[in-house]
Amino acid sequence: MIELLCKPFEIIKSYSGNCTFLLLFVASLFVICIFEKDKVKKSIVAYSSIALLLLFLLPAMPFVFINKLHEGDTYYRFLWLLPMGIVSSYAIFIVISKMKALAFKLISFIIVLVCIIIGGVYMYESPTFYKAENLYELPQCVIDMCDEMTIYEDREYEAVFPDEILQYPRLYSPYISMPYGFETLQFGTGHNSAIHDEMVKDDIDVEKLTNLCEQANIHYIVLNQNRRLDANMDDYHYVYIGSYGDYNLYKSTEMFFGEWKDFEEWKNSKNE
Amino acid sequence: MIIVSIIQLILFLLLIPFALGISVTRFFDSKYNTIGNILVCGFTCELALFQLLFVSFYFLGFQFLPLVIVYSVIVTILAIASFIWSRKYYKKLTFPIIDMGFITFIVITVFMLTMRNLQGVNDGDDAFVLGNALVTLNSGLFYKIDYYTGFTINSYTRHLLASSPIFIAYLAKVSFIHPTILAHRVLGCFYIILHNMIIYNIACILFSERKKSQYRGLFAAMVAFIAMWDFHSMMTDSTFMLTRTWQGKAMFAEIAVPLAFLLYLIIGNEKKLKISYIVFIAILCISTVAMTPGAIYMFSLLIGLLSIIMLIVKKKPYYVTLFLSLIPMICFGIIYILKCR
Hints:
The complex is a heterodimer of chains A (272) and B (341).
Chain A: H1 2-16, H2 20-35, H3 39-57, H4 60-68, H5 84-98, H6 102-119, E1 129-131, H7 140-149, E2 157-160, H8 169-172, E3 176-177, H9 183-187, H10 193-199, E4 203-204, H11 206-215, E5 220-224, E6 228-229, E7 238-244, E8 247-252, H12 263-271
Parallel strand pairs in A: 2-3, 2-5, 4-6
Antiparallel strand pairs in A: 5-8, 7-8
Chain B: H1 2-25, H2 35-60, H3 64-86, H4 100-118, E1 119-121, H5 126-139, H6 164-175, H7 179-206, H8 215-228, H9 237-243, H10 248-269, H11 275-291, H12 295-314, H13 327-340
Helix pairs in contact in B: 1-2, 1-3, 2-3, 2-7, 2-11, 4-7, 4-8, 5-6, 7-8, 7-10, 9-10, 10-11, 10-12, 11-12, 11-13
């Protein structure tokens, strides 16, 4: 019960960081409740926000959504229903409009802007952003590797990628398939976890990795250059093709790379 | 080919929404007949129609190409019919007041769009959204190929009701643009513009008095400014809006939620409750499920709460009919429980 009572507050704390904008929002609700005379505006903007905030804090809500519906990871999204930006800005201009002298209005406006800048965290300095290198806004090295891998269009090539670029190849090309995908990182489990377990090691057991990859019919292996290899990949049927950014690309010498119409012929010649 | 792509994008993201939207805003008071409201309402109708057709096609066993053909035909016919039916309302458009505040707002919007295009985003959920769009476009099948790996699967229904990735695939199909480029470059900008249009229209209602009209642009600029400084965590609505703009969850936060507040402000300022409002809120509900299945409970909660508030404020019992707009949510809720869990 206590856990359920605390959960919404924990979520609010991690949601709102230094809580500056949350405090601004709560103060703004008071301002609107006190100074706004229009019943409709006050109700829709302020009372609904207060009701939503109270609902969010009510233990019954986390009980239903976290305990019963297992939506614990996404419960914070209820906070999206609060129009924080609208409420805060509206209150700011209610206060400013009450001032008579233009100088006061200007000074207050500037103070508010400075407070937002000091209390806020600038979005475009977020670590999630990186400089867009191409039209796709994907790392150029991934695009170059996928182009190198796709010898024939309209057939797939199986490739294994390091975790840090795992989500990108299939945003560029549907012809690059993977033994395990982003679900391995997102959900902690996925297909071919043995290959993934080997790929994430700092010191890679080349014989083990290449054996696993051959069993899974992997055409290409991409390795981060900072990984240490205990043997030469060329000795285990994967030859070095080239380097792309921080990654080395290795190609199988045992897999079929041609068009599907030539597969039987290739298979027969291999058996001979 | 580039010219064809541009023409198709203008058709599906501007002309068709603009033609559909006028048939919604014609029922609003003439002061709400703004370009922003028309475009936003039209896009909502476009997405809701896509959602209905996609879910129907999925359960009927049809695949992507029939959906593309049928949807294109229906949405075009509806847009033409809407244009003919409501064309006289284009003459009664209300335009924004161009003042320093409005110019500031435009400058901030242009800044947001520029940053959207200068920076890529490292976000894993793209592997689902755009991976799904690319797989659907390439294979022509719904949820038969695992978008993370490329494996063939029997079916995948967890995110079935969120048709926004399929909508990206549809736009990519008709515009001949790679889904990743389309989402990152075009839809990212388009949704930011829609969001800012909604905020400006909210400003027009909040500062409806003539003597306060100078604050409209400044208010909208302030909302945008606050959003740009709201990277307090990865979870905030502003973070979703400005980083993963094209994803359904972000669309929910940036378009659906402010639009609900805008609609209820409009309804609150009207003397009578028109049935067209109830219908449009129902359409909005359908489109929110296309954005994220979580909308079934989150948006229902918001609409339910705003309807209760409206009932209390207006003190007229027939405002209870606003709850009828939640009927689509009940239907989607049943489908979700039966098929997607």
